[in-house]
Amino acid sequence: MRVRAFYFINFRTMRNIAALFLLMSAFLSSCGDSSLTRTLPNVTGTTGEVLVVMDKSMWVGSPGQSVRDYVSPILLGLPQEEPAFTILPVNPEGFRDIYVAHRNILQTETDPGKTEAEVTYTRNKWAETQLVVNVTAPDTASLAECLRKNGEEIRRSFNNAERERLTDWLTKSAGKERSVLTAGGTKWELVKPSGWEPDFNREGIMMLSAETPSSTQSVMVSVTDRTITRLGCFELADLTQKRMSDEVKGPDGGSFMVIEQKLPVSCRSFRQNGTDYIEMRGLWTLEGGFMGGPFISYAFIDTVTSRAVVVTGFVYAPRDDKRELLRQVETLMYTVKKRTE
């Protein structure tokens, strides 16, 4: 009888019950996970900016100095002094309205109730793709010390957030466009954003550039023709120097690009996504000419062919700051990957 009674419910009643059920389900889901109903604005600010929320007395004191020295120090490998980020200090009472949607935020505060300093990282707190780093310490001295100890990690986190945003921007600009390098039986691809054009592409080596009236940005990808068993800083320097001098010539044709020897280069090794990398940063100059600028070069060994993949990016912008131009180049460099199809 119960089954038969169920089937006598009219269609309108069933539709109302179904609608009510869906409404209740949506409500209960939203109560359990506010992210389902949360709509975040886009981030504000420009690439390379970090908003620092700090009391003015601390900004002119040791905590502010720790930010300038360790979170945003002067970058190595640039021809003129440029800090790692453009720092925008804001008093806590002024941190509201458009400020809360800034792309990179470093919040600092002292709390006498805390026993030790703490650093937390939050993504998408008030805006999409946003990174908020909060540093809390018992007092001013411990806050400055915490910023000093964690400055490199904080700086790397902001850099990674900027790289993710730029990667998304460059990839969307490129659409399906890729520049493909053939080396033996292996193919490597590089995102080809709008405005970037090929300089050359032949077996084992290719180069793309973006040119404006005031700047040139270039990325060169090459694969060694011999297998390599060891890849360190010296090997990377030799590979980079050879590719530079062989492939990048000056306007007169008689000059060529080399690594500047008068200033030191920096070199580091790191592991990312299961691959061991060697990365070098420094200045290039034109042997027999008067041009120069910053470069980044990295390499890794392809585990299938045992050949080294060397990616070099450089910037020429004699009248402009170069930090953000180089950041764009670096981001594009790390879109290199093996083509699977």
User: Which of globular, elongated, flat, extended, rod-shaped describes the shape?
Assistant: elongated
Distance between the termini: 62 Å
According to DSSP, the number of beta strands is 16
What's the oligomerization state? single chain
Structural class: alpha+beta
Report the CATH C-level class of the largest domain.
Alpha Beta
Q: Name the poorly predicted regions.
A: 1-37
Q: Please identify which CATH superfamily of the largest domain we are dealing with.
A: Mog1/PsbP, alpha/beta/alpha sandwich
Number of helices: 7
Mean pLDDT: 88
Percentage of residues in DSSP E strands: 25-35%
CATH topology name of the largest domain: Protein Transport Mog1p, Chain A
Pattern of helices and strands: HHEHHEEEEHEEEEEHEEEEEHE
Number of domains: 3
CATH architecture of the largest domain: 3-Layer(aba) Sandwich
Overview of this structure, please?
- The chain has 341 residues and is of the alpha+beta class.
- It is 30% helix and 33% strand.
- The protein folds into three domains: 2-34; 49-165, Chitobiase, domain 2, CATH 3.30.379; 175-338, Mog1/PsbP, alpha/beta/alpha sandwich (Protein Transport Mog1p, Chain A).
- Strands 8, 9, 10, 11, 12, 13, 14 and 15 form an eight-stranded antiparallel sheet that branches. Strands 2-1-3-5-4 form a five-stranded mixed sheet, with helices on one face. The chain has a three-stranded antiparallel sheet with strand order 6-7-16.
- β12 (266-272) and β13 (275-287) form a beta hairpin.
- It is elongated and about 65 Å long.
